Amino acid sequence: MNKLLIALAGVGVAFSSWAHSSSCQSETLLVTFQVTNSQVINTQVTGANKFESLKVSKADSQLGKKQVVFYRSNNKVAYQYPQTGISEVFNRITDQRMLLQRYFDKYQRGIEYQPNEVKGKQSWQTKYQIVSPTALANMQQIAQRGSGCQQEHDYQQQFGETSITLTWLPELHLVKHYQLTDKHHRITWQLTELAQDPKQVTAYFKEKRSYLLTDYADIGDNEQDPFLAKMINQGFIEHGSLGFYNSQGQNISPTHDNHSH
Q: Domains of the chain by range and CATH?
């Protein structure tokens, strides 16, 4: 696997205001992440502990920045990719079965996939909390601080040439900081906004429900539909996770289990 780095950090005023709340209300969240894809140039490693001594001797070569907006509302979550105008909404049926709707804002259309039509391993908890429970369980906790909704747990892991760091918000079941790096690549997820805003979350899901949905199983009977024909041509019909990919075509989003060891 071509290994990379992911980081999420920085929670704003909305998070701070929950510090002394008796209930963190983790069921309804609106979270914005900034994702930066960089190439690490000319790394140098010194000392016995590679994890702690990784140095970057030249500036990163930045390949691009994107946003991911995460919506959580009880038994459904959404990942919105503003740069492409695409959203994926996952509806929990069981812990291992999810109904997926992929929405295209420009066309106000969507495609619905039944659980047996969704490719790959289905883990509701991974979609719900952004990071795989398997990945979290395999990491070593190294620090703990704060209380209430501001409680934070720091984790780390190293395998081969890859190092991972994670700051976890246990009361919110949410990642604050996640970093996966090797000597060549760096992908950074940074949490820039976090709010408990039921009205905004409800409005988002309501808007998506107003879009015209086509069942994946019915696409073959509707190939003359200009929207569906365009989506087929662009490769958006056959379902595979959106997320972010490395140069080897591997999904390196934190919701994917590629880096769970």
A: 13-234 (2.50.20)
